[in-house]
């Protein structure tokens, strides 16, 4: 406890505009009486409690109820069970980042909400609309409905300005008890051994974060937001001193992308890399004569990848992006995800022991070749399925990596049995032995099948599977 108090004094006494600081110990009684109160008074008015309501259906539901055929035999009063629909309330936290009411929070806080209300610490409440939900980063943007408002707000600050050991505050609404402030230190930067969102790159802190804190700000000692609190490690559901925040660089990229119209059906449109990468292990580092296992090694490069266009080759190791050392694959993904579409990233690679500096343009996933989406119809096993030609844009939308061409299932066929046999993301390789390379070939191949059934070869999660369907 005494060490934490000492560290508080040190940070508050130092010039906050500089990253290079001379650390000192408290020299007198006045320094010992220093408090976080002025900082809290500055930031807390911009921190909001978020209350949501969403429709929930409860009760027993027979699994056959949604089947097109068997569903006719089930209803809520018979074998289907009694279902009840009601509004469920939930809560979380957020932070205002503009005067006109733009709020940053977590995507999981407001996902599925039909009604959203934000409450300031002065008691004022406002209804809010969802501007954007970006599940890849677990971030969401809300906008206060009321026009011509002037609300308190805070600004973002690069999390890179933090050092391990720096003091931070976490502000939010844990367990719905009301706005709460906790203090701690930065325990680690760039934590990637998690599975919280698609980027797995977090600030770790021991500031107490509990349920309801999600979406609230992690604040530096100059009153600026360096992260958005998103998760904890806990065996009991309460804080155990291991909390995680999304870095402010990702928050800034989401806000900028929304302002620039870089939004798709699944959230923010981020730079497409078109590469397969893996971490540099100690064995790989030793074999390449590296001092330590850092970087991300490129194992495969798509034919239209911006990395390939810039001259990167398979086997190259990315060691830095825009001056930041790349420790692993997670950091490479994070650094490139924060580069605006159309901008150049300064990328340094290691090839055969030589350092090469390249400029790689951040591009959106190309929607080329044409996807030619088709809804299959006919008296065959894939009736009702939606298929598309593979291209980078389609691959990103359905979460495929490493596939350059082919025909992919976007939506399963109708029906209970077939809907669980052909799955979204399956790549159709052949039908009755005939190679499939375009959506236009699928209808012809299926309608030419005999009444005895059809043999379909698919690739699923890298595995080749043969299906026999009637």
What does this 3D model show about the protein?
It is a single chain. This protein is an alpha+beta fold and 470 residues long. It has five domains: 2-34, no CATH class; 45-144, Thrombin, subunit H; 159-256, Beta Barrel (Thrombin, subunit H); 275-361, Pdz3 Domain (Roll); 374-469, PDZ domain (Pdz3 Domain, Roll), CATH 2.30.42. The protein has helices at residues 2-13, 29-32, 37-43, 107-110, 248-259, 282-287, 306-310, 329-337, 392-398, 439-447; strands at residues 47-59, 83-96, 102-106, 115-119, 125-134, 139-144, 167-172, 180-191, 202-205, 217-219, 225-232, 243-247, 263-264, 267-268, 275-279, 296-301, 317-321, 324-325, 344-351, 354-361, 374-375, 386-389, 407-411, 427-431, 434-435, 454-460, 463-469. Strand 4 and strand 5 (125-134) form a beta hairpin. It is globular. The protein starts with a helix and ends with a strand. Residues 1-20 and 76-80 have low confidence and may be disordered.
**What proportion of the residues form beta strands (DSSP E)?**
25-35%
- Global morphology: globular
Q: In CATH's first tier, which class of the largest domain applies?
A: Mainly Beta
The biggest beta sheet is recorded as:
7 strands, antiparallel
- CATH homologous superfamily caption of the largest domain: Trypsin-like serine proteases
What is the C-alpha radius of gyration, as a whole number of Å?
26 Å
What count of domains describes the coordinates? 5
Mean pLDDT: 82
**N-end to C-end Cα span:** 70 Å
From the coordinates shown, what is the CATH architecture of the largest domain? Beta Barrel
Identify low-pLDDT runs.
1-20, 76-80
- Report the helical percentage: 10-25%
Counting helices, strands and paired strands, the structural category is alpha+beta
CATH topology of the largest domain: Thrombin, subunit H
Number of strands: 27
Helix count, per DSSP? 10
